[in-house]
């Protein structure tokens, strides 16, 4: 274990970021569990019986005395007696008398369960709190309890017998001066004391939030989808050579972007720059001998491998360097349809000898350096076509003229991509951020390594562009292009015009 404070701080910060990401990712589940907690609290409160609480107060008195010293002693005695009478107040005798006085059909034991007694600090008072199923029942029981306590206390102070007339001359005829009298009768409760709806809702809210947080953290911990660029380094020891932001430019059936391309509906600066960065990273893998024939593949369909292959070819062509894009996905070819070129002739025609290579290569008018070799008619034996010597000869012939990019099928359904990667300079593996799982990618990488194929790097596709999420995928795209300058100049022009109008108005007013 490292004792480096910086490492500990970095680990703590990373854990906090992971927790924050988990909460943002599963905020809907957290809201749902919170609402369920509130609903459960309301349901519990609705089925609970209503209980009302009334409060009555008794005072221990010791008679009047004009002597200050005796009065202080009497006050101290009253406080001491109040503490003693607290135990008396919870006796069965007082409970039985109180039930009788209140006229409530209740056993003494049940009555004791409804009453609590307390003595405030440094006082001679006894506070009685009584519960009842109705407000009136609670009030009657509280008042009756104080009266019953007074009677029982008087009986005890007189030696266990009822007090006799004070006019008696014998000691036995004298009654004790210590009494318990009522000084505050119970008020009628206006609302039930139980169940407490506010407390129940607060507990339900906290319980729901806690359950939601735990769910989010556990779900995030066991989430096997690739949600961080660091996963490639920690799990697979593969560099991330490109991160492509999520954008409508390469969504909903559109796969290519780039300025000046007639097949593009909308230009997106961030996507264009991301593919330029990917192009640069690929070229600098080995500056003296960069890969000239590389395969672009993925673990499963839908990860965006064709999108990456198409756009990196466009990006290389923008440099004026010759590049050939070959559609080797002979099961679900997409390249010809994406670039809106002829689909009926292509790679398979050349392999079976029905056409010459130069006859089926198609140039993109907006990018003269880019030539495309479509898949052509779909054969019944795609794997045999890809593994043939004739296919290899075609690829090497194209490589003598420029860079060759092969759009290959996914690695898990078929073995074509592994064969191509092993035969040529290697493969780029495309993973969709937040969708491709670690297990699927691990199996795909194992398929490549079993045939000793070179893995050039990984490309994270459809990376979120929000600040918090993008940083986890090592994507820091910002708008820094001509359109941004135009918008900035427009804003400056509007401010300058407003300032000029203000100056002219001030001059007119002074004149």
From TrEMBL:
GO MF entry, a single one: ATP binding
CobQ/CobB/MinD/ParA nucleotide binding domain segment(s): 297-469
Gene3D superfamilies, A to Z: P-loop containing nucleotide triphosphate hydrolases
Region (Disordered): 487-511
Keyword DNA-binding: no
Keyword Transmembrane belongs to the record: yes
InterPro entries on file: Bact_polysacc_biosynth/exp, CobQ/CobB/MinD/ParA_Nub-bd_dom, P-loop_NTPase, Wzc-like_C
Residue ranges with Polar residues bias: 500-511
Keywords: ATP-binding, Membrane, Nucleotide-binding, Transmembrane, Transmembrane helix
Transmembrane annotation, as ranges: 25-47, 199-218
Domain of life assignment: Bacteria
PANTHER family: FERRIC ENTEROBACTIN TRANSPORT PROTEIN FEPE, TYROSINE-PROTEIN KINASE
Protein name, as recorded: Capsular exopolysaccharide synthesis family protein
Species of the source: Falsarthrobacter nasiphocae
Lineage of origin: Bacteria, Bacillati, Actinomycetota, Actinomycetes, Micrococcales
């Amino acid at each position: 274990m490292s004792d480096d404070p910086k490492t500990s701080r970095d680990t703590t910060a990373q854990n906090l970021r992971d927790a924050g990401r988990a909460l943002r990712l599963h905020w809907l589940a957290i809201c749902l569990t919170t609402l369920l907690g509130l609903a459960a609290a309301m349901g519990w409160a609705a089925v609970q019986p209503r209980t009302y609480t009334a409060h009555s107060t008794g005072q221990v008195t010791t008679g009047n005395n004009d002597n200050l010293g005796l009065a202080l002693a009497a006050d101290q005695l009253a406080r001491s007696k109040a503490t003693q009478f607290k135990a008396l107040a919870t006796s069965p005798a007082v409970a039985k008398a109180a039930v009788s006085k209140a006229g409530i059909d209740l056993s003494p034991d049940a009555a004791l369960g409804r009453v609590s007694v307390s003595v405030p600090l440094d006082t001679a008072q006894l506070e009685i709190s009584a519960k009842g199923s109705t407000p009136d029942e609670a009030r009657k029981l509280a008042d009756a309890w104080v009266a019953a306590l007074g009677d029982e206390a008087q009986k005890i102070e007189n030696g266990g017998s009822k007090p006799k007339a004070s006019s008696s001359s014998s000691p036995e005829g004298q009654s004790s001066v210590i009494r318990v009298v009522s000084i505050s009768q119970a008020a009628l409760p206006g609302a039930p004391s139980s169940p407490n709806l506010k407390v129940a809702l607060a507990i339900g809210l906290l319980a729901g939030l806690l359950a939601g947080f735990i769910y989010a953290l556990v779900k995030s911990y066991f989430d096997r989808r690739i949600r961080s660029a660091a996963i490639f380094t920690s799990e697979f020891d593969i560099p991330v050579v490109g991160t492509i932001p999520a954008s409508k430019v390469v969504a909903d059936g559109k796969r290519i972007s780039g300025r000046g391309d007639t097949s593009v509906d909308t230009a997106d600066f961030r996507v264009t720059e991301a593919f330029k960065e990917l192009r640069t990273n690929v070229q600098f893998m080995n500056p003296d001998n960069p890969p000239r024939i590389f395969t672009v593949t993925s673990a499963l369909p839908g990860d965006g491998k064709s999108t990456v292959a198409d756009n990196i070819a466009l990006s290389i062509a923008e440099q004026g360097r010759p590049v050939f894009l070959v559609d080797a996905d002979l099961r679900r070819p997409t390249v010809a349809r994406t670039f809106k070129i002829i689909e009926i002739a292509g790679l398979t025609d050349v392999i079976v000898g029905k056409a010459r290579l130069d006859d089926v290569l198609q140039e993109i008018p907006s990018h003269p350096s880019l030539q495309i070799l479509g898949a052509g008619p779909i054969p019944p034996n795609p794997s045999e076509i890809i593994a043939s010597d004739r296919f290899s000869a075609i690829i090497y012939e194209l490589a003598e003229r420029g860079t060759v990019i092969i759009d290959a099928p996914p690695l898990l359904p078929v073995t074509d991509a592994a064969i191509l990667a092993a035969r040529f300079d290697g493969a780029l593996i495309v993973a969709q951020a937040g969708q491709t799982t670690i297990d699927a990618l691990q199996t795909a990488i194992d398929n490549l390594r079993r045939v000793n194929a070179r893995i050039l790097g990984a490309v994270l596709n459809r990376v979120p562009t929000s600040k918090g999420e993008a940083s986890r995928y090592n994507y820091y795209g910002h708008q820094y292009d001509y359109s941004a300058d135009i918008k900035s100049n427009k804003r400056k022009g509007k401010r300058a015009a407003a300032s000029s109008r203000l100056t002219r108005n001030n001059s007119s007013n002074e004149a």
